[in-house]
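User
Here is a favour to ask of a fellow structure person. I am asking you to supply a protein in sequence and structure-token form. Please set it down just below, with no commentary around it:

Assistant
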Amino acid sequence: MVEKEKQSVDPATQEMIEKAAQDGIRVAFERAATMKACPIGAEGSCCSLCAMGPCRVMAPKGKEETLDERRNRVGVCGATPETISARNFARKVAAGTASHGDHGRFMARFFLAVAKGELPGYEIKDEQKLLLLALELGVKIADRDKGEIAAEVAKLLIQEFGKQEGELLFLKRAPEKRQRLWRELGVSPRGIDLEVAEALHRTHMGTDQDYQDLLDLSVRVALADGWGGSMIATEIQDIVFGSPVPVAGKINLGVLKEEEVNIIVHGHEPQLAEMLAVVAQSPEMIQYAKTKGARGINLAGMCCTANEMLMRRGLPVAGNFLQQELAVVTGALEAMVVDVQCIMQGLVDTARCYHTRIVTTDPRAKIQGATHMPFDEHRALESAQAIVRLAVDNYVNRGKNIRIPRHTTPLIAGFTYESINYMLGGSFRGSFRPLNDNIINGRIRGVAGVVGCNNPRTPHDASNLAMVKELIRNDVLVLQTGCMAMASAKAGLMVPEAAQFAGEGLASVCEAVGMPPVLHMGACIDNSRILIAAAAMVNEGGLGDDLSKLPVAGAAPEWMSEKALAIGQYFVGSGIFTVFGVTWPTIGSQEVTEYLFRSFEDKFGGKWAFEPDPVEAARLMIGHIDKKRKALDLDRGKGRLLVDMGMRRGLDAA
């Protein structure tokens, strides 16, 4: 066993790693320590696309290659290391885009059924956002009820997945200069599914064998995610479940309760979580739990479903990706209810050693050994009741090996484009102007999106925290989603009081507005909110005419999934410098890496970087932000004094 302090910086996680070891349970941390990553696959130098391989084309370490050696380092079909590396990269981006796209498609079909009144228990909660979206898409709203309007909007969004011609509708949300560049480079996505399918074809053995062409293709695929599938899903979820507003919550494994039925919902799609919340809070089910000896029912979230429930209902968050098995190790969890994406198969083996039931609910994501209880949206209330009842009935099977870490942290979540607009400008003059002004006058140096997963190949949460603290200390406002948002929340960086850790300029803005220096913007699907916020900064004026001119940067310091690569590629393709940590999947090919890290900037205005040291990565981001500030000739003066609430009270008293 590796020392728990080297596996995570989070005290609750450290405690449960220790308990898992005492209980003889292998969790992801131990599996990562005992199973070394394949160096050839990690560098993108292995091709397994046909039965002539797998072919390894890894360059010799510590040795200069001759030209003949270089020419002979190819696959059986003659594929060069560059082609193999680019194929692997493009396929990962396509898989990530397919994951978010399938989520978006699922939500669009769900939205249509809600609009038609076919799903009892669901309704349109944000009618204003529906009407604004309808107007944007050219849907008539006069003399029509919201069901009719929603149905037409839903049909338009469903068409985005199978569209064969034209461009995705939401591309128009990008600055005009960026739209023209995409068209000139031939990377404007047509249909979401079309781009994924073409990428799989072109990366098939013997098809596209120009590494630059393959990497340019991967931009078009990724843009179909950020400005397509992900953005569609976020818009629909806001309309149906309500647009998030800043809300207080709690996070970490300490949110589990010893004398209540504990249920964790884990995954990415909010329909299930929404109905479980309704049922778990119903007087009838709470009374049923009491008949089993429990005081009540405690519903908490894990991973991105947790972010959805937190933003809209203020429900507690049990933890991020690498904490899922540890929630079971507490011995206090009656059921973990899962749907799709980021669900570890190891949950089932861990649960066998305790009383926890692992319940799969989606036909696309079954796990051998788990209990499958299909969630039927047409009978959503009944489906949710059956799942919660199973958990309640399991309460009596708890053993005595229970240990819940006493670690929780408060946080504020729900900072969407709309809520930031209101927070900065007020209800009558909602605007990004205050943000732009404070970037121009130098109080805020720039903005960084720090997103992504956890990866047991690096200490849990450590890279995120080191990076985020370095950024805010240097007056960079940080926007976060997904598991990285949870890491910052557990460290106390998502409350207004965290302004004490920020530089003087950023702290003054946070104190005046009453906001944290690190803003929680939602689940990983909600990275599209960051794109919309960036576009709003351009449209507000004073910071250039394109996303590539903004003093902004992106990062995923602990990434692990193909979705993360798709997210990073749509940020880069949108003109934003993006740095990843842990590992990089093309370092086996110098040419491919150089193209992504340097030549991409000439084409797209954004580029990649790889830096496993999070502080050094943050400094790369700050250096990029300073370069953009210099190009914009921004005033570094501090301008007018910002008056916070305490100072206002002093003025009133005087």
